[in-house]
Structures are given as structure tokens and as C-alpha cells.
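Dear colleague,

Thank you for sharing your sequence with our group. We've completed the structure prediction you requested, and as agreed, I am returning the results in plain text so they can be pasted directly into your records. Please verify that the sequence below matches your submission; if there's any discrepancy, let me know and we will rerun it promptly.
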Amino acid sequence: MSVGPGVAKQLRGVLEDFPHVQHAFAYGSGVIVQPDLYDKSSTNKPMLDFIFAVDNPHEWHAQNLQQNRHHYSILGSLGPTPVVWTAERLGAGTYFNTAVWWRGHMIKYGVIGAQLLYDDLHHWDSLYIAGRMQKPVLMLKDYAKLPIARKNNLDAAFTMALLLLPEQFSLQDLYAKICGVSYIGDVRMGFAEDSRKIERIATGSAEGLALMYKKRLQGAVADKAKLVSRPGDSFRQDLSDSSRVDLISTLPLGVLQRLASATQPFDFRSRCDDPEVAQHVAESTVNTGTHEQLLRAAVAAIVRPSSRRQAWAGLFMAGGKRSASYLFQKVRKAYRTH
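Please find the predicted C-alpha cells below.
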């Protein structure tokens, strides 16, 4: 995995300067190198991004406000309760402190409840953090309760990518599709995000993506798709209705519920965790003849509201000055890559 020189060891020290966390990882262009995004001779280096999962966000923020009050906007002066409310009620579950100086680096860190993270990985409730974990990250601390949910999240991303790919595709096509899943419907795309972001992630993270997904090319999901390897790192999959149904029926609950709303005359949403109902929803979706469009719409119905809510919450989390500065940097990066 392409981690910046000398960065990995230093990043693991971040946990020394914060209250105890259950799970932590670093991600983004400051950690995973994205080709030609930054001038190597420039002093303008990318921000380092972190996610911390904690058992009790209220207690964690109470401790962090005592330890690192200067990381917070004016919202922090009101105490941990408004901080957590902003993250979980106004936002998509994660509270971000941005533009924080840490050991000579500008960093941004997000804090999410460990149970919320588990639910997002397992069910795709918001795809806000689960989407980041479908791409290579630098794990700093692994939570014992998350491995199965993390595996399910990767299986689901792989499955969704196959459902959105044509009969024949290359390994790079697969990686790009996987990286793009969590951006379907994201309100920031085309405005405050690099227009080539997905391509850059897939290219810069090829080594890490291979570690995460290459074994899945011969696993259970690949068997359902009847995946066949071809010369030159290319593949062919079965596009028959039965194969599509088998794949769709295994998708996370959040996707199945939205497919049920789009295809069923009755309210099946509350029953999609039943395998028989999931199978019925999958069959109905494929029978429309427009399952790719329905799948995209289902994912967008998860990502769009969560990304919109998080964008609004970010204004309160960062405060006016930091928000304006952060947005300016994002837009400038997006403009530079056009």
C-alpha cells in the first residue's frame, strides 16, 4: 500500500494525544498517495485524516474537551452533549474536528460511536464511514468486535461493484467501481471534491485494494457471479437473472430496504432481514429489467442524505472561519484537478 514515506510510524503516535479509543485508522490523500495530486516540491501538504471509534462518545468528548479544548469550535464551550447531538442528530453520526495542528501536521479527526460504526459496516445505514473502509486505510488500532462487520462491508462493496459492471471488465475497472460505490449520490461530488477522485484513489491504492479484494475473486461472491478469469487481468461474469438475484439478495439491509420501497406494493422494508423476503425483493428488482438503475438509486438514497446532513453539521463542528478555510481548500483541490 502506498503510504507516504516515514508517515506510517508517526501516525501511530496520534493515539498518545487523545483519550482512549476502541478503533482507529488513518485515511485520505495525506496517507494513501494519490498520483499527481500534490506537487512533491510544494510545502502545501495534504491534511492527515483520522477516524476514532469510541464506546461512549459523550464521555470521550468530555475528556477530550478537557485535554484538547482548542480543537473544537465555539460549540465545544457548550459541553459534550451538544457536540454529540450535532454528530448523531444533525450529522451522519461522526463529529469532526478539522484544521488541528498535531506534531507539525495539519489534521482532521472524526469521532463515531463504536455501535454506530458497526451498524454502518453491517447494514450500510449511512455509508459515511463504511464507505471509507471499503478503500485502503492505515489501521492504527483494531476493535475486536468489528472484524466480521468489516468483512461483510468489503463483501458488499465487491458485490455491488459486480452488479454495476458489464459482462467483461478489467481488474482496474473493478477497483474503480468499488471505490466509487460510496460516492454515488454524494452531494460534494462535482463541487467540493476532485472530479478525478475515484480514479486517483483506485490508481494510488491498487496495492492496498489487491490485498483487500483479490482473494474475493475466488470466493463465495465470485461463485455467485460465476466469475471467470481471462488473460491480462480481465474477467467475465454471468449476467443471467438468476446470478443477479443471488448477488442482490446478499446486499446490506439498507440497500434491500430501499429496493423494497421501489419495487413492492406493500411495506417489506421491516422484513428485509428475512432471507426469503430478501430473495423476493431481489427477484422483483431483477424482473423490472432496470436493476442497475434501481441499485444506484438505492445507494444514492443512503449516501445523499447522509452526505448532506454531514455537510450541514460540519458548519457547526468547524465554526465559520474553519469551515470557510476547509471548503476553500477542498474547492481549490477540485479546481486544480479539472
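Summary note from our side: Strands lie at 23-27, 48-54, 94-102, 105-113, 138-141, 168-170, 228-230, 234-236.

Kind regards,
the structure core
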